[in-house]
Amino acid sequence: MFTGIVEELGEITAVENLGDACRFRLRGSIVTEGAKHGDSIAVNGVCLTVVEHEGDEFTADVMAETLDRSSLGALGVGSRVNLERPTAVGARLGGHIVQGHVDGTGEVLERKPSEHWEIIKISLPADLSRYVVEKGSITVDGISLTVMDAGPDYFTVSLIPTTLDLTTLGLKQPGAPVNLEVDVVAKYVERLLASSQGAGK
Asked: Among residues 89, 83, 184, 66, which one has the least CA distance to residue 143?
């Protein structure tokens, strides 16, 4: 489990095509500290498994399903990525519960800079809109954010300077894809309500 509090802005240093998958080599001095084979690291909000670790770099295999359902397939050598290790039991939950299981992708639609923050509008797939509410939580490229405004096919978030400086959202311009993970609690509630309504028929 992750919290959506990005630990560092890493970089993809190599991409190996494996046919029905690919292997990324990524650099991140913080997340590789103490890393070992089999550990999980979230890359732009996608939970990946460490295959190899050497120095401040690690490799992770990404299957075709993940490449198709996330924005990882659009990344290449030199791409900057958000990195986060799983939260430790007993640690503070700084963001919200993030599984690292991407629900879909959106697109940066526009950016509105202000003196001390910036508002970003992001497109929202129709099948995810019911899970996104004003003042609720959403994960964008692995970043736990609060929804400012939620429409039928978009939502907006407000970013402070720290988020702009330390994550990919400080770099992405209109047209750029982003990974989205909605609040898992909303999905569980929907499932439970559907089950109870079905049982009452």
From this structure: 83
The H or E element containing residue 89 is none
Are 109 and 172 in contact, with CB atoms under 8 Å apart? no
Per-residue pLDDT reduced to its tens digit, 124-183: 999 999 999 999 999 999 999 999 999 999 999 999 999 999 999 999 999 999 999 998
Calculate the CA 200 to chain-centre distance. 37
Q: Return the percent helix, strand and coil in the chain, to nearest 5.
A: 20, 40, 40
DSSP one-letter string for 99-122: -S---EEEEEEEEEE-SS-EEEEE
Tokens 């992001």 appear where? 122
The answer to whether residue 84 scores a pLDDT higher than 80 is yes
Looking at beta carbons, which pairs linking 131-136 to residues 24 or more positions away fall under 8 Å? 131/103, 131/182, 131/183, 131/186, 131/187, 131/190, 132/182, 136/183, 136/186
Q: How far apart are CA 150 and CA 154, in angstroms?
A: 6
Query: Nearest Cα to 112, choosing from 49, 190, 164?
Result: 164
Distance from the Cα of residue 193 to its chain's centroid: 27
Sign of CA dihedral 121, 143, 103, 65: positive
Question: Tokens in use for 133?
Answer: 């509410």
